[in-house]
Amino acid sequence: MTKIESNAQYSRVPHVYAAMLQMTAELAKAGVGKDKRNADQKYNFRGIDDIRNAIAPLQHDCGLLIYPKMTGREEKERTTKSGGFALQVIVRIDMHFVSTTDGSEIVSQWENEAVDYSDKATNKAISQAYKTACINTFNIPTEGEDDADKEKPELKSGKPAAFPSPDVREQFMSNCLSAFANAKDLTTLKDIESLNHDKLVLARLSEDEKDREVAVKCSDAYTTAHRRIKAALPPEKQTVESRMGKAPDELTY
Questions:
Q1: In angstroms, rounded to a whole number, what is the distance separating the alpha carbons of residues 14 and 34?
Q2: Predicted model pTM
Q3: Are residues 14 and 100 in the same domain?
Q4: Do 113 and 216 fall into the same domain?
C-alpha cells in the first residue's frame, strides 16, 4: 500500500471517532470527582449534573452531539419496609454519539433501573443510563491529569538513606571496623562483609558525604584485615585460599 493510498483510506474514517477521542482527552484533564454523598448507604458518587457540566462545554469544540433515546421501559410496584409505595423502573437506552462535522454516528445500548417513591423513577433511570454511558465511553477519571507546568517541586533523590540518624551511622561503623579487625580467617572476614554488604553499598552511593566516608573506612579496614590474615598463612595455603575465592583482596563498592 502506498503512502497516498494509506492517507486516502485514513481520510475515510468517520469523524465521530476523532470527536470521541478528543472528548475523552479533554475530560481526562480535569476528571469528575465523587463529590456527592449517599447518606443512606454511605458512599460517594458522581451526580448526573457533574457529568453534564463537564461534557456540555466541550461538545461544540469537539464537534460531538450526544443524546439518549429510550427504546424500552418496564415498571414494577414495590413495597417499602415501612409499608409505603415505591416504583421500580427499568429503561433501555440507545446512546447516540453524532459527529457534527460529517454526521457519522455511533450508537451504544444501555440498560438501567431506578426506584422512586412518587413519579420520578423513569427520569432517574434515564439520567443514570446517560451518566453510566458517558463515564464508561469516555473513561472519565475521578481526578484529572497533573499539569506539568502547574508546579515545579524540588524532588528528593531516589536513593534511599543509608542510615536513619548520625548515631546509627557511627554505631554501624564502629561495629563494622571492630569486626573486620578481629576476624581470624578469610571465611569469617567474608561472612562479615556479606552481612554488611547491602548497607555499605547504600553508604557508598549516598549523597551524604559522611555516609560515603563510612563506606571508605570500612572498605579500608577490610583490605587491611585481609592482608593481615593472608600474610599469616603458610605460602601453600595462601594459594589455596585465593583459588577458593573465600574473600576478595579488596572491596569495590
A1: 34
A2: 0.50
A3: yes
A4: no
